[in-house]
């Protein structure tokens, strides 16, 4: 394996990571597959690339490919790679839990709203009808005659302490 091929593989590996982190999973798979093909799979770098490739497979919706790759990587000579493969495979093979509908938040599709300048108020509350929605509460007014407006002695004590500290520091600087 030439040094030039290793450098190209490292470049593709970094491009794959960047694409993955940018949410472009299909492109990440392409870059990482290219890098993996250019490297010896039993090396530390080859294992890292394959772990990223398995993660990209899973993110791209190819869970079976990710699990199959992790099955191969469990026998990788580099201990960290085989451990990561075991952990990932364990997570991906775990049964999917059913969440109650009350725990889920539905996000409305805003793609159907046109940008023609019309101001449309979109109200979405699946648990209440439009007639039952809460009205905005009236602002609370505070009676100023009930508010304590006297000077607080703590402020004066704090100002004196700060002034004494500053004077002490100035005195120390002249010694």
UniProtKB/TrEMBL annotation:
Domain of life, per lineage: Bacteria
Regions crossing the membrane: 154-174
Keywords: Membrane, Transmembrane, Transmembrane helix
InterPro entries: TPR-like_helical_dom_sf (IPR011990), TPR_rpt (IPR019734)
Keyword check for DNA-binding: no
Keyword Oxidoreductase among UniProt keywords: no
Protein name: Tetratricopeptide repeat protein
Span list, region Disordered: 118-139
């Amino acid at each position: 394996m030439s040094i030039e091929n290793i450098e190209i593989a490292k470049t593709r590996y970094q491009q794959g990571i960047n694409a993955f982190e940018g949410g472009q999973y299909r492109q990440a798979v392409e870059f990482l597959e290219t890098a993996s093909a250019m490297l010896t799979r039993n090396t530390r770098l080859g294992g890292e690339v394959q772990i990223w490739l398995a993660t990209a497979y899973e993110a791209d919706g190819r869970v079976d490919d990710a699990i199959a790759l992790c099955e191969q990587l469990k026998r990788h000579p580099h201990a960290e790679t085989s451990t990561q493969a075991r952990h990932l495979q364990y997570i991906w093979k775990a049964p999917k839990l059913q969440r109650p509908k009350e725990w889920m938040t539905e996000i409305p599709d805003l793609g159907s709203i046109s940008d023609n300048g019309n101001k449309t108020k979109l109200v979405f509350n699946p648990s209440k009808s439009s007639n039952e929605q809460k009205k905005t509460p009236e602002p609370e007014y505070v009676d100023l005659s009930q508010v304590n407006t006297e000077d607080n002695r703590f402020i004066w004590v704090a100002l004196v302490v700060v002034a004494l500290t500053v004077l002490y520091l100035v005195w120390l600087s002249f010694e």
